[in-house]
Amino acid sequence: MSTSSHAVRFARVREAAPFALPLLVFLLVLYGMLAWTVYTSLSDWQGTAPNYTFAGLKWYRFMVGLDRFWVDLDNNLRWLVLGVVPTTVLALCVAYLLEIGAVRGIEAYLRTLVLYPAAMSFVVTGTIWSWMYQADRGVLNTLLRAAGLERLTSGYTTDPATATYWLILIFVWQYLGLAVLILQASFRSVELQEMVESATLDGASRLRILIAVLIPNIRGGILVVVSLLLISALKVFDIVYVVTFGGPGYATDVLALFQFIATYQQHLVALGSGLAVVIFALAFIIIIPYTIYALQRWFE
Amino acid sequence: MSNGATKAPVSQIVVGVIIAALVAGVAGYWAGTQRGGGMAKAEERKLEIFHWWTAGGEREAADAMFKALKAKYPDIQLVENPVAGGGGVSHRVVLQARLSAGIPPDTWQTLGGAELKSYVDGGYLEPLDSLYTELKYTDAIPKPLANAVTIGGHPYVVPLNMHIQNILYYDKKLFDELGLRPPTTFDQLLAAAKAIKAARPKMSPLALGSKEKWEAAFVLDSLLLEVGGAEHYVKLYKGEVDVAADPAFKTALERLNTLRPYIYASHPQLTWDESCGLVVSHDSAMVIMGTWAIGYFKSRGWTPGTDFGAVTFPQQPERVLLFHPDTYGLAKGAPHAKATMDWLKVVASADLQVPTDVTQGGLFARLDIDPGQFPDPIRQELQTYVRGNPGKLILDQHGSIAPFSFTQAYWDVAAGFTAKPDVAGTVKAVSELFTTYKVQEGAAWYQWP
């Protein structure tokens, strides 16, 4: 009896092996690289030749002594808050408007229009927006001047104090469509539709339905959107690289861009790895609530 | 049973693939260790080269280089690994990966100075003493140029050109119209800027594009050179000046701040070529840029000497040219060392330097080439000056004297200052950068004069 169950188990393992193997290789590569990066960040690698001499926290101490690091961290937090909250709220509103047919007739067009930016790469959007943001000949200021609204014109990304916000706006624009799509999909469960129907019969207003019925019941969808946006905002690199290159000075710099500069321009590889570890740690902190939620659902 | 029979091959295939991959890996490693391991086999006539001249204008210069090689050694098969993108940023990423992995190309483009030193420190380059002796190359090029490619007493690369950083380009027609003389000192620059602003209120007299940061450092450098002089300039970037207590650095920043109202305001949004474009479109009248701008102006249909002029800036207290070279060396463990040495001989020759430098925009590294080979009066004059005064060349901060880790951070601070001037804060920040990046230690190799 027992031998035959062993045989069955063995057959199962053999059956699964070919499929588990790619996963294993993937995990090995992924976590192997991660461990390697952590180790490099603790080494003394500066210059072009690898140097894995253990240096402890030397380069982390160097990192926290740099003004640029704190500017980056500050900017990354701005990205996390302003890239995620407005996008989610706006996406909820747009998705609901589309859902209740407030814009019947042009809904299909509107949906395409909103989703379109998500199909473009950040390099393309970044280039287009950097043209629009040009203070003296960009389309935004040109339109404002033509409309006689001279005092609304702005230097956009040329002012170190506000440049980051203009970059975040590009991110919001680009991710809105995707967020709308996910939220609209989560409206569509049969249960939820029935609840909305009965609430409507009870005479609830549309705003009340959104707040009291829809939002509490699409927590899963919102969580997906928020986590997606958080991770994307945290690892932002392309928009900054293309539009401002971290400038003016390093006013719009973010951790991911500094990691690139430190590693390949400054040849401070240990520092660059340390910055990568910081980004990973932040991502880890952000993803924990999502993991807990997912696990709770799993065991329910 | 039939089930087992159909499944077995799958796992067998997987195992087989893994074994094959392992064998291939070991074999590849073995082949790698055997390479250059003193085998008497005749070397292939091949040259693997890494360079970043891929953008318009520079691509033509690269072609001119390889044409010169083909003319001399038609049997050498060229393998180019240029990385698109230009400017050398992505180039350095790929090169770094190849070098750390122990599979270097035979030769690659590098600036002299600090960048070269990083490769020498990494042990990636062979010293070229015998080649220099054979070609008498040290005597053929200016001494400051030879110093910029010599680390610890050994020359490591062969320079093929010199880019000059401190040049002020100006709209010649406008200057003639307004009766202005091209400025060669700060006072003259300020006066010219004021005169242009008065005559053309819509213009920003001095163009600037600080998106890539180094452009702002160019302007600061020129001002600094006038305030402190040549010796101070070298000492500063060797980390031998206490910036926090240095009146010259502070004055240079203050002068830059004085110029700011006359500088193109949206400069953080522009790259260097776009800033030169402001002069072409008559939005600006002057720009401080390296010799490569000549090629840009020409590509926009501007004729040197007619549409635009150029002067060394500053020319007080003396006329110093800040330079950096493009160079090639021999990789340690190069698969085709002999072909590479042939290539380096071509790089050192006038046959390569004349067509390449005329196209790409720099000056000739060799002093014995007739300045009349340049089609434009600007470089004819510059090359003649270099011939007569080779000692007036100083390796610039772009190339650079100080280690690259410092230089990058320094550019950011300089660019930050042009956007938001804070003299005291910038003095403090720069002073800290010199300590943080241990400049004095890292720049000790540089000897001037």
Strand-residue fraction of chain B?
5-15%
- The CATH topology of chain A is given as MetI-like fold
Largest interface: A-B, 42 and 41 residues
CATH class of the largest domain in chain B: Alpha Beta
CATH homologous superfamily name of the largest domain in chain B? Periplasmic binding protein-like II
Could you characterize what this model shows?
Chain A: It is found in: Cell membrane. Chain A: This is Sugar ABC transporter permease. Chain A: It comes from Candidatus Segetimicrobium genomatis. The complex is a heterodimer of chains A (about 300) and B (about 450). Chain A is built from 13 helices and no strands. In chain A, helix 3 (about 65-100) runs antiparallel to helix 10 (about 220-235). By secondary structure, chain A is mainly α. Chain A has helices spanning about 1-40, 60-65, 65-100, 105-115, 120-130, 140-145, 165-185, 190-200, 205-215, 220-235, 240-245, 255-265, 270-300. Chain A is about 75% helix and about 0% strand. With about 450 residues, chain B is an alpha/beta fold. Helix content of chain B is about 50%, strand content about 10%. In chain B, the strands form four sheets. Chain B has a five-stranded mixed sheet with strand order 2-1-3-13-6, sandwiched between helices. A four-stranded mixed sheet of chain B has the order 14-7-12-15, with helices on both faces. In chain B, strand 4 (about 150) and strand 5 (about 155) form a beta hairpin. The longest helix of chain B is centred in the first third of the chain and has 33 residues, at about 1-35. Chain B is globular and about 75 Å long. Chains A and B meet through helix 1 and helix 12 of A and helix 1, helix 3, helix 4 and helix 17 of B.
List key phrases describing it.
heterodimer; A: 300 residues; mainly alpha; MetI-like fold; flat; B: 449 residues; alpha/beta; D-Maltodextrin-Binding Protein, domain 2; five-stranded mixed β-sheet; four-stranded mixed β-sheet; 19 helices; 15 strands; disordered N terminus
